[in-house]
Structures are given as structure tokens and as C-alpha cells.
Amino acid sequence: MDALCGSGELGSKFWDPNLTVHTDNPDLTPCFQNSLLAWIPCIYLWASLPCYLLYLQHRNQGYIILSGLCRLKTAVGVLLWCVTWADLFYSFSGLVRGSIPAPIYFVTPLILGVTMLLATLLMQYERLRGVRSSGVLIIFWFLSCACAIVPFRSKILTALGEGVQDTFRFTTFYIYFTLILFSLILSCFKDKPPFFSPSANVDLNPCPEANAGFLSRLTFWWFTKMAILGYRKPLEEKDLWSLNEEDSSKIVVPRLIKEWEKQRAKAKESKDVAFAKTTNAKGSKGRVSDEEPGEAEILLSDQLQKREPSFLRALLITFGPYFLISSFYKLIQDLLAFVNPQLLSVLIRFISNPSAPAWWGFLVAGLMFGCSVVQTLILHQHFQYVFVTGIRLRSGITGIIYRKALVITNSAKRSSTVGEIVNLMSVDAQRFTDLVTFLNMLWSAPMQIILAIYFLWQNLGPSILAGVALMILLIPLNGAIAMKTRTFQVEQMGYKDSRIKLMNEILSGIKVLKLYAWEPSFSQMVEKIRQGELQVLRKAAFLNAVSTFTWFSAPFLVALTTFAVYVSVDEKNILDAEKAFVSLSLFNILRFPLNMLPQVISNLAQTSVSLKRIQQFLNHEELDPQCVETRTISPGHAITIENGSFTWAQDLPPALHSLNIQVSKGSLVAIVGPVGCGKSSLISALLGEMEKLEGKVAVKGSVAYVPQQAWIQNATLQDNILFGQPMDQKRYQGVLEACALLTDLNVLPGGDQTEIGEKGINLSGGQRQRVSLARAVYSDADVFLLDDPLSAVDSHVAKHIFDHVIGPDGVLGGKTRVLVTHGVSFLSQADLIIVLGDGQVSEAGSFSALLQQEGAFAEFLRNYVPDDENIQEEDSATVLADEEVLLVEDTLSNHTDLTDNEPITNEVRKQFMRQLSVISSEGEGPGRPSTRRRLGPVEKKTLEPTVTRGELIQAETAEMGTVKLSVFWAYAKAVGLCTSVTVCFLYSCQSAASIGANIWLSDWTNEPVINGTQSHTSLRLGVYAALGLLQGILVMVSAFTLAVGGIQAAQTLHSNLLANKMHSPQSFYDTTPSGRILNRFSKDVYVIDEVIPPTILMLLGTFFNSTSTLVVIMSSTPLFAVVILPLAGLYIFVQRFYVATSRQLKRLESVSRSPIYSHFSETVTGASVIRAYRRTHDFMAISDAKVDANQKSCYPNIVSNRWLGIRVEFVGNCVVLFAALFAVISRSSLNPGLVGLSVSYALQVTMALNWMVRMTSDLESNIVAVERVREYSETKTEAPWVIEGSRPPPDWPQHGEVEFVNYSVRYREGLDLVLNNLSLRVKGGEKVGIVGRTGAGKSSMTLCLFRILEAAQGEIYIDGVNIASIGLHDLRSMLTIIPQDPVLFSGTLRINLDPFGKYSDEEMWQALELSNLHKFVSSRPEGLDFECSEGGENLSVGQRQLVCLARALLRKSRILVLDEATAAIDLETDDLIQATIRTQFEACTVLTIAHRLNTIMDYTRVLVLDKGTIAEFDSPTNLIMARGIFYGMAKDAGLA
Fold first, then answer.
1. What distance in Å separates the CA atoms of residue 1011 and residue 1029, rounded to the nearest whole number?
2. Dihedrals φ, ψ of 266, to 5°?
3. Phi and psi based region of residue 131 (left: phi greater than 0; alpha: psi -120 to 50; beta: remaining)
4. Phi and psi (nearest 5°) for 913?
5. Mean pLDDT calculated for residue range 1071-1091
6. Does pTM surpass 0.90?
7. Are 452 and 610 in contact (CB under 8 A)?
8. pLDDT tens for residues 621-642?
9. Can you name the residues that pair with 1456 across neighbouring β-strands?
């Protein structure tokens, strides 16, 4: 360098320490200024150029029109080039003049000129590639300005001292300086949006990030707008920005799928090769025996297993490159983290050296601040990239799983339940997102540890090995704690699952619990599980306290060991401030990687399990889209099957074989046959849902499909029918009319805009089936596949539908229809009847042809179609009812003669009866048990006036605005006020101990050194150790106290919630979806159990940490008090903005998350319908839209954390700056120990401040759970269970006399009366049948007896006791009901019969004997301890009904209410029940709600209800003679 500068005119040395360092007025030599300092920006620009050009090559956003700003920038660039080269030519002119300048005066202007030219050209290239704000150039201009400041000052100083020597260069330099300053300012402004840019689509609310300038992106300034908006009002869905194009599902998912398909193709290639080799190996060996595979085979099968397609590789290729950018940022950030401890050591040396010039200190303080700021900016860029990768991963994985779920075969579906598949999407995809956040720690943690140890070694020498050894010992301890915690978690999950499962059953069967007065028993069961759960939580809390102790004390213990070894190894080793505090700050850096590494590794293990599960799912077999030929078909036919064999799974025997079927275009084909003969399978085979083993299937044209179990979406009724087709009002009305839906629309609160609950919960079975049929009719397809759509509807409705829709004169007249049916009466109108038996066609032909064949079908018909003379043609609508009842009568009278010599007919008959015995399956209560009670028609008509459109259920609101203090207060009370105060007290003691220890250390480092040694080292060490350990113990105790308090609160809140829910009236359950109540018991209780306590722990920790930092800095440099207020103001300001916005974003995120999963589970259940209508692509788009909607609130939430981080850490960096600055200013009065203490504290404060805001926000978001649980713990309850002052006598009721006096009732406040002014008296022992049309109030009457509904006016007396005056349980336990839907709970049979354990085993066996269950139960090895599955799924419906009968027999009460089962039960069981009731309850009062009149024809009296009033009440014979309503009903039923 000296060679470049030294010779010639104006020459100087390159470096002069006397001029630069050891002086109070520092300056750099002219040579240094002109060479290295001037070259720094140029070196930067040329170095970053290749990468930047590569980036610009790939990024094309359209070009930007030459704007005024751009012209100005270019002009300034050209001027700069002119000015620098003017200098160059001036130097050349010097050669001419004879004064030879130093070579540097030629080199530097040349380099600068070329670089300015490059910068100008780069601006133009950026403009053509659509870059609106260039980060590379901003940094270049900034460096140029920074480097020009030194010559700027130095030239002025020289001019003031010695006058201006070189006027030309002096002038050009100031022009140059002005221009680069101007360039810097200009580069901060952003250009216009590019012309023709692809992203110029019409986005209503685009994310401002895409158009933000470089500085705005660096500091996340573009987010401020939302922060302000969120502060002003609670954010709503419409305020959210659209997702960035490159983060959206439509970009991410296809990229991932493309890579995954590549992986699959590769794997398939290698498999084919391996397969070829295997077959060759077999061939060469001769016949290899089945038992022993050949060697070649074993080796090859290993290779086969290895080449599964790798989902991991697909993920890495798709998301890896973007993630690597974050790793680059992380590397820089990690290296910068070690700069501040070095600067701290320089600062302490500066304080210890009074003769050092003051500017050194200011420079160090400035550097510390600058380094911290850069570190903050880079760290948050790293996080941004990491989290965006996480978001994309989740979108990609969710999308690929969704698409796979639509095409997997049925055998694959069997291997994983809907729940498991949904888990892949929710839990496993989330694991990837969580892992990505800290994945960089895998390489970064070891690097940080190595660097820290290296610097520590320099500081303290080999003594640090003692500290490092301790750290390494702590790792397995932490690992062990983590492992143990995980086992506790698993155990607790088990408890939680069983508690939620039980709660779910309780909520599903709450009505039965109330009717039987069983709530206390089930409450105890829940409480028992809950106790186990809390016990595990207590253990986990103890472990957590220990781990908190190690986390807090590890750095301290390490420092203690190191210092102890250091001072005791050699007494010449002196612990001074520099060594002590620099080591402390290095130990603090070590804390994070040491704690994170084990966590990341365990996360990695979990994620690898998730990866395996996802990969296994993605490798499942897919349905073959070419299975059914849709284009070519023999002319004139719509459906052909040639020699077809089909199976549900490769490992199962074929369900259908050797089928040959030809269906001509436009014909109506009926498929009949006994249960389980493969009728539905045939339909599935035509849809391509089954695996084809051999043969050909062809279906011409589009297909509409009506499944046996209607699949209804959670959407409006209209959307369910349109199913993605455009609206055609005329056609739509026609469809509604044909499918008999108009009457239902009048009943539904919102007409066809009524929102249908999940799985069609608020429609009856028949309505669901008709909606499903309407969807098919509206689709206007060519081929209609109808899988038994008529069985779920009433007989007259079935006839209507057949006539208007399916039959020859129906809407579908000219179309091809394949109808699976059990309805005999329609067969005569079919063009072709296919009779299936055992998976093959046993007969086929027209109705008349089959009758003449005298085959099985003819036999079947003779038994079923009654003789013509019995059919009274008075009214076509009653034809079917007549047939049906004749059949019922016929079957009952022949019941004893039915033998097993006609198994098929008998089976079919039973099935047939079961389907037809539905006079009013659409009465009160749905056809099959469902989780929510369907509202009875009366209720439906008058649903809450507050509900505007047809939402059955009021939407659950996401709470708005700040959480009230009362909620915090309620939580503190639940924790216990003493505990709350104790925790705070313990924390302040712990902070005091921590400050004490560090002040003691700083005092120790200031102890004078005598003869090269320090005295009292052992005392110093002892006190330091004692204070440090005290701090650790206090932390542990406070953590444990807090956890115990948290568990106490959890227990209290849950118990209150449970107690209230058990006492809630039935009306509450009718209007509140069980999912919402269950959510309180699962999600909210989980938050109270496991989320709130740790959050409070962290919050208190960071709060006291920050406070003690400020205390220490203030006490060492009192001047600091001046800046505390402005900094605190800024901090609180940012914090309020952030908390308001973040809280609402989290709420929006959680609200938008569940639709993804509910839509997914809906899709999985309806996959066959979606495929049949060819709507897979639409559904993929819907799913993507739901994922994107969730990411729309997820992304701002991530950015809000970055936005906050940068601002809060800036406050922290200011604390560092001022701590260092004031230390320099008042260094005369400070000792090095205090400065070390104060600055090393300041260096830690940044993270604490950041986490404190985050925890405040988390706490505010989560404390809402307390609010929600309290809301449901304080709802209105029903009357008390037991009223001590008025209990009935123990043997009440003796006679069973029931009297209604002027009795009226309504379902809920504000609804019409269901029963109006009812007065009647039933004598003891009477048998009364209650009949009436749907909605006449039959069920309501029985509900009033049990006080499920409370009287609006009037009384009910039982044996003279007014039932309103006694407790509910005293009443309900003395009555017995056999409900319409048999509800069983999972657990033993014993619990299902007798949850309180009142009865002996003999009594139970006797009850089972009488209810004909004895044989079944005694055949089970477990006997009474036979486990019933959830909802009694492992018993048939009939058996469940018999269990309910056994319950009634056990209770032996004087009054029995029988709500007769409708279609759920076969005739045999029904006979059994009736016979048992006649014999066993002979002396009791029996009230029966009859759906089939023949069961009550021998009763004492019959009560006919009409619109809630008594129409007729007399004996059956009298009523028939009176020819009133009852006569009409009996006539319809063929009994009169």
C-alpha cells in the first residue's frame, strides 16, 4: 500500500498509529482515506454482483416505465461517473504539468468511476426486471456515504488548520459527497409498479409486502398499517390481506405434487428392474419352494423395500432452496452474536485505563449498538424465511394429503380411519411447521458452542473445561426430564381422550341420563378420570419445576464451577472484571443452543414418525380411473358388464363374480335380492369404486348417484341440491316439487337457505334422502344409480317419489335408471328386474317373465304382494299403507309357523318389514340416533325469532376486544389468592438473589491485587455460590407453587363446568351443538391445564428479569434514569399495538382452522359421491381456498411477531447503547466491575423484553379459555335434584295414578304451546295408548311427566303428589321409560343396566332372562362385564332395545312410559318387548306412544292428540265405533 501512496506528490504513509489511535483527535492518513476506505463500497458491489445478476435473471416482474425518479437517479449516477473521472483526468493533466501525483490518485478515481457506471447500468437493468426498490444499491450508497464521512471531516480539519492545498480535488470531493448523499436519499424511494406485471390482477386487498421498499421490508414497516388498524378496532376477516401469490396453495401444492410424482416414477422404475431380476432368478433356480425363498430373492426383496418413493426428498427439493436463505442469515447472526462480548472486554479495558482517549469509549458504545441493530435485523429476516417455509410446508402437505384422500381405494380406506387421515393433516403437517422453526439449530448450536468455548478458553484457559464438563452432564439430565415428561404427556393424553370420549357420550345421551336420573353416576365417572389426569399433571409439574431449575441455574452453575477452578488452580489467577463479565456474557450465549439442541433432536424424532405416516398414506393404492369405460359402448346400451368380477380389496374374496349385464338406454332397471347379496356392491362397481379383477364395465355418459346413506354437506339446502351446478330457477322448482321437498321447506326456518348441520344433523333421515335424490335429479345426468333411496322415507312419500321422479312418468322418464329397492309394489313398472344372490345374477327379466319362470323371485313375490281383492283402490296414497299393514298382520299371525326351511324369504321378509314399518319415522326424533336432537316440527316452525336466516344454531362468536380484568381476577381466585401473592413474592426474592450474586461478583473483581494474588477468594466464592443456589431454589419453588396453583384452578373450573352441564335443562342441549360444549371440555380445559400456567411462568420470569436489569443499570449509572421514560413509553406503545392486533389475529386463525378439517372429513366420507359427480377438482379448489383462508390470518400473525421483535429489540439495543454511553461519560466515578455488571445485564435484556410482550399477548389470547369455561359454568340450571323439605314417601307411587290438570307446556320461552290445557286422569294399572299425527305432542306429553319440559300452567299429580313440588331425581328415579332410540354408553353391560350398583347380580340375570338377552350374554365369557362399544355399536339395534327393556325390568316402577321404536327394530324383537310388557308390567300403569296401531288395540284406553289438545279418549272399540280420527287412522292401517 505504501508503494501506491508513498511516492510522488501528495504522498503519505498508509497507516500512522500516532495520528489515528493514540490521540484525542483521531484521523486517518490521506493514503488510507484514498485507498482502502474509498474501495470498500466498490469491493462490496462487485462481490455481490454475480449473485445479484443471477437472482435478477430468474425474477421477472415486467418492466418499469422510465419515470422521473428513475431519470433523476440515472442522471446523478452519470454525474458521479463524470466527477470521479474528472479527478482521473486531473491526475493525468498533472503528468503533463510535471507534478507526478502518487499512483493511488490514478487507481482510485478509475475504480470509483467504473463502479459508478456499473451502479448506473444496474439501475437500468433492475428497471427492466421490475425491481422497484433495490436493497443492493441502498447498501452500496449507504457504505459510500459512511466511508466518505471520514475524508469529509478530515478535509475540513486540514483546511481549517493549513488552508486548502488542492482546490480542484477539494471541490470535486464535496460535489461527489453531495451526489452520493443525494443518491442514498433517492434510492430510499420506490419506483412505480411494473408495467404488464403478472401480479397486476384485480386483488381487492393485496399484501403490501409485495410492493414494499427494501427498508420497509427490512424493518417490516409495511405491517404497521395493520397494527394501527388492529389497535383501533378488532380485526375481522375482511381486513386481512390476500396471501402472497408464491405462498398460496395453487402455487405450492402443484410444485410439491410434481416432485412427489417424480419420486414415485423413479421408485417404480427401480421396482420394475428389481422385479425383472427376481423373475429371472426364479427361472434359473427351477421351482423355488414356497417355504424357503432363494438367496437372490431375499437380497432383491431388501432392495425392493429400500426403493420406496421418498417424500422427504420431494419436500427438500420443493422447499429446500428457499430455506437455505434462512440458514445463510442464521450463520451471519450467530457470528455477530460473539462480537458484543469482545466489545464488552474492550469497554472494560477502556474503563480500567484512565489515560485512554474518551473517543475510544464512544466508538465502542456505538459499535455495540450498531452490531446489536444489525443482529436484530438479520435474525428477524432469518425467522421470516423460516416461518414462511413452515407455512408453505403446511399448505403443501395438507394439499397433497387431501388430493390423495380423494383417490385411495376402499381397502386403503379400511386401513386408516377418517380420524387418522384428518390427524395426518392436522397434527403431522403441523409437526413439520414446528420443526422448521428451529431446524437450523442442528448445525448452528454446535457451531455456537464451539465458538463460545474457543473464546472462553482465550479468557480463562483450561479452567473452562470444568464448566463445559458440567454442561455436558446437564444434557442427559435434561434429556431424561424430557423423556419422562413425554411419557407423562402420553399418559395424560390417554386420560384426556377417555374423558372426552365419555363426555361425548354423555352429551349424546344426555336425554337418557336425565330420564333415568343417572347424572350423578356419570359425573363421578368423569371426575374419577379427571383426578387421574390431574395426578399426572402434578407429577409433570414437579418435573417442570426441576427442569426450570436446571434451565435457570445451568449458566450460573457453569460460571461458578469455572471461576472456582480458575481461582483455586493457581493463586496467581486473578478474577478481574473483564474476565468475569465477558465469560458471563459468553455463558449466556451458550444457554440457548444447549437447551435447544435436545429439543430439536426430539422434535426431529417425532417428525420422522410423522413423515413415515404421511409417506405410507401417500403410497396407498389408488382407484383405477380407467376401470369403467365411459366412451366406447355397444350401440343402444347405456351400461354393459361383460364377465365382471369385483372385490372390495385384493385380500378379500370377490364380492361379485361372473356378471353379464346389459342395460339398454332409457330403461328402468330394478335390482332386488336378500340382504348382503351385493346390490350396493353392484352400484359401486358401476361407479368404479371396487377393484376389478376381470371383465369389462362400460357406462355411457355422465352419472348421478344416490347412496344408501345420504351424504349431506354442511352448507345450505340449496347448495346441497345444486352441488356446484349453475342455478336454473325453473328446473330447481321442478326438482323440489318432484322430490316432495316443498312441504319441508315450509317447515325449515330459512327455507332452502337453511344451513344444514354437519352430516345433515338437522334433517330427518327421510329428508336427507330426498335432498340426496334432488341433487341427482338436478344434475340432469345420463345415467342414474339409485341405491335404495326409498327405504328411508314414509310409504306415501315413497310412492310420490316413484311416480314423480323414478317411474316411467317421472322427471327421469327417458333416462337410464338403476334402482336398488325393497319395495315390491314398484317392480311391475320396471323394464328389467335383476335378482342377485350370493354375488351373482340368479335371474333377470321383466316382471311378467320372472313370474312365469316360477323361480325364487316368483316365490318371494307371492309371499309379499297381497291378493288383488284386498287392495282398496279408494285412494292411491293409502294403497301402500294397506299393503304394509296386511303384511304386518300376516307376518304376526304366521309368526309361529315361520320355520327355517325358507331362509331367504324369511330374511327378506324381515328386512322388508323393517323398511316398511315406517308409518311416521319422520315424527319426533330422527330415524337413527344422532348426536344432536332434531327439533320437532312444532319447534321448527317457531324457532327463535332472533335467528334471521336459517341457521339452526347461533354462530359461536370469536370474542372481540380486550379481555376483561374480571377474567384475570377469576383465574387468580381459582388459583387461590394466597398462592398468587406467594408466587409474586418468591419471584421478587429470586430477582434480589440474582442481583445480589452479580453485585458480589463485581465487588470481587474490584478487589485490589496484592503481590499478584487476591485475598479472601474462598469467602468470595462461598457467598457467590450461596446466593446463586438460593436463586435457583427460589425459582424451583416458585415454579412448583405456580404449577400447583394452576392445577388447583384447573380442577375448580372443570368441576364447576361439569356440575353446571349436568344440571342444565334439556332445552340448553337442543339449541347448543354438542361440539361447542365438547370444545369447552377439550380445547378450553386443555388450555387451562397446560397452556396458561407455563405462560404465566414465562411472563413473570421475563418481567422480573427486565426489571432487575433496569435496577442494576440505574444503580451503577444513575444518568440512565433520564432515558428510561422515553424508552418505556416507546416499549408500552409498541406493546399495546401488538397485543391488540396479535390477539385478534390468533382468534381469526383458530376460527378459520377448523373448517379445513371438517371439510376434509366430510370429503372423505362423501368421496364416492364426489367422484361419481366428477367434482374432485372443485373440491380440491374448495379445500385449497380453506387452507389459504387460514394462512391469510396465519401469515400476518407471523409478521406481527417480526414487526414487534424488531421494534422491541430496538428498545433493548438502546438500553445497551445508553448503558455503555453513560458508563463512558461517568467513567471517572465508576470501577470496571460495575461497568461490566451493568453492560452485561443490558446485553441480556433484549430477549427478555421481546418475550415479555409475546407472553402478555399469549396470556391475553389464552385466558379467554377461562372466560369461555366460566360462561358455560353459569348457564341457567334446571330445578334441584332433591328438595330436602319435600321428599315423597319411599314407596311412592303405590298405585301409579296419573292426573293432568289444565296442563299447558312449551319447548322454550317465546315458542308456541305444544300441549294446550290438557286435563285427563289415568287410573292405576291402566294401559293407555297415545296416538296422533306427527307434531301432535305425543312425545312432549311423556317429557312433561319427567319434567324434561316444565309446565307453562297447570299441574300433574302422580298418586296425589304434585310432581312440581318434589326434586327431579325423586321424580325421575320412580318412573321408567323405554325410549325410542336405544342409547347405550361405552362400558360394561353392568354399568349400562345399573350405573349406581343398586341391584344384585341375580336380579340383573333375571332381568336379562325376561328380556331375552340371557342367551346372548351368557354366551359371552365376560358375562355382565361384557364391554359395550361407544353407542353400543357392537350390539344390534334390536339387542340395544332389549337392554333398555332390561333396565325397565330392573327398576320395577309403578309407571312405565313406552316410546315405541319406529323403523329401528325388527318385528321379532318388537313382539318380544310387547309380550314381556304384557306379562311383567301387568299391575303397572303403562303409557305407550304408538306408531303401529296393532300394538295398542288391546289397551284399556286410547288417547288421541291433535295439535296439543285431546281429540278423543276412550277404549279402542268405542273409538272405532265413533268413526272419528282414530277410526280414520285404524282404517288407513287396515284395522277397521
1. 32
2. -60, -50
3. beta
4. -60, -40
5. 84
6. no
7. no
8. 888 888 888 877 778 889 999 9
9. 1376, 1486
Whole-angstrom distance, CA of residue 433 vs CA of residue 607: 10
**How far is the CA of 1275 from the CAs of 189, 1077, 1270, in angstroms?**
58, 12, 9
- C-alpha cell of residue 996: 445480589
Distance from C-alpha of 1039 to C-alpha of 541, rounded to nearest angstrom: 8
Answer yes or no: are the C-beta atoms of 711 and 772 closer than 8 Å.
yes
* Overall average pLDDT of the 246-265 stretch: 94
At 1497-1516, the pLDDT tens digits run 888 899 998 888 888 889 98
Cβ(220)–Cβ(1202) below 8 Å: yes
Q: How far apart are CA 1507 and CA 1212, in angstroms?
A: 74
Sequence-distant (6+) residues with CB within 8 A of 523 are: 1058, 1059, 1062
DSSP state of 408: B
Cell 386443555, located at residue: 1086
897 burial via Cβ count (<10 Å: 0-12, 13-18, 19+)? exposed
Under DSSP, the state recorded for 1506 is E
Name the β-bridge partners of 691: 647
Percent of the chain with pLDDT over 90: 31
Instruction: Report d(CA 1373, CA 1393) in Å as an integer.
Output: 14
Residue 1022 Cα to chain centre, angstroms: 52
pLDDT digit string, tens, across residues 29-64: 888 888 889 999 999 999 999 999 998 988 877 888
Tell me: pLDDT of 90 over 60. Answer: yes
> Average pLDDT for residues 1442-1461, to the nearest whole number?
84
Phi-psi region of 340 (alpha: psi -120 to 50; beta: other; left: phi over 0): alpha
Bridge partner list, 1322: 1298
Q: What is the C-alpha to C-alpha distance for residues 477 and 483, in angstroms, rounded to an integer?
A: 10
Q: Are 1408 and 1444 in contact (CB under 8 A)?
A: no
- CA angle in degrees (0–180, nearest 5) for 1360-1365-1369: 100
User: 1257: helix, coil or strand?
Assistant: helix
CB-based burial label for 1483 (10 Å; 0-12, 13-18, 19+): exposed
Residues in contact with 1215: Cβ distance below 8 Å, sequence separation at least 6, in sequence order: 1109, 1110, 1113, 1127, 1242, 1245, 1246
Residue 787: phi, psi to the nearest 5? Answer: -90, 90
Write the DSSP string, 382-436. Answer: HHHHHHHHHHHHHHHHHHHHHHHHTTB-HHHHHHS-HHHHHHIIIIIHHHHHHHH
Is residue 1299 a contact partner of residue 1320, using CB atoms and an 8 Å limit?
Answer: yes
- Mean predicted lDDT score pLDDT of the chain: 83
pLDDT digits (tens, 9 = 90+) for 831-852: 999 988 888 888 899 888 888 8
Asked if 1500 and 1483 touch (Cβ cutoff 8 Å), the reply is no
The DSSP H or E segment spanning 1152 is helix 1121-1165
Asked if residue 888 has pLDDT above 50, the reply is no
Query: What tens digit of pLDDT does each residue of 1313-1362 get?
Result: 888 888 999 998 888 998 887 667 888 888 888 888 888 889 999 988 89
Q: What is the DSSP string of 1185-1244?
A: HHHHHHHHHHHHHHHHHHHHHHHHHHHHHHHHHHHHHHHHHTGGG--HHHHHHHHHHHHH
The label of the residue with cell 480535488 reads: 169
1529/1375 Cα distance (integer angstroms): 30
SS3 of residue 832 by DSSP? strand
Q: CA 119, CA 117: separation in Å to the nearest integer?
A: 5
Greatest CA separation for the chain: 142
Residues present in the chain in total: 1536
- Between CA 296 and CA 301 the distance in angstroms is 8
Coil, strand or helix at 1095: helix
Instruction: Identify which of 535, 419, 513, 538 has the alpha carbon closest to the alpha carbon of residue 1058.
Output: 513
- What pLDDT does 1422 receive? 82
Q: What span, in angstroms and rounded, lies between the C-alpha atoms of 509 and 1381?
A: 10
- Rounded CA-CA distance 1089/1100 in Å is 18
pLDDT above 70 coverage of the chain, percent = 89
pLDDT at 948: 37
